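Folding follows sequence. Below is one example:
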Amino acid sequence: MERDITLEIKGVTKTYGKKTVLHPTNLEIKTGKCVAVCGGNGAGKSTLIKIITGIEKATTGSIQFHTKDKKQFSYMPDHMNFHSELTPVEVLDYYASFIGAKKEKIQEVLEKVGLWDKRNNKVGSFSKGMTQRVNLAQALLADVDLYILDEPTNGLDPFWVIQFKQILQELINKGKTVVLSSHIMRDVVEICDEIVILFEGKVKSAGTLEEIYSETGCTSLEEVFLSMVESKAS
């Protein structure tokens, strides 16, 4: 198989008891693309991300990776509870020890997320946005084909949302593949090549913005989402 597909999601579902939180989901994530899984709270975004990463086990279906090193990816959770007494350097040194990243890489990623000058401060003193940037830094430590980011812009101020978009673009320019989840539609529009819209655990629409707008007759993702809510209420 040619490596034009990095990730295949086939018939994946997730149920807890009698409650289905993710209905049959089939997706192909193309190599070198940034794909956003978006929707409101409870849509199934984080569930799908956790199934992809192996944190959660799918009730049915399968996840297939087509990376150079099978199942090798970097993961940024929606939040991380770093030990408050550790510094950013200590946090990243811990993660680097698992993947064999060099000290120079730690400096590189901390500079990229604007925390090199805070490298010896305790993360317990950091704001939510700064802690999220440490979280992003640990995900950037690994040089892999696939990056999976769960609500990566949570807590970031407008300046760092812009910087995050630039970091993402750098990954894509290097041929990396990115899958991210987000409920912030305006961020998704500017970042991603393709979008998957989840609503109540179902894929309601998927494709490029142009394809989604053509399919739904809408002119913004917010309008697409509102039309789904209104359709349910009617």
Helices lie at 45-53, 88-99, 103-112, 128-140, 158-173, 185-191, 209-216, 221-233. Residues 1-26+54-66 form one domain. The chain has a mean pLDDT of 93.
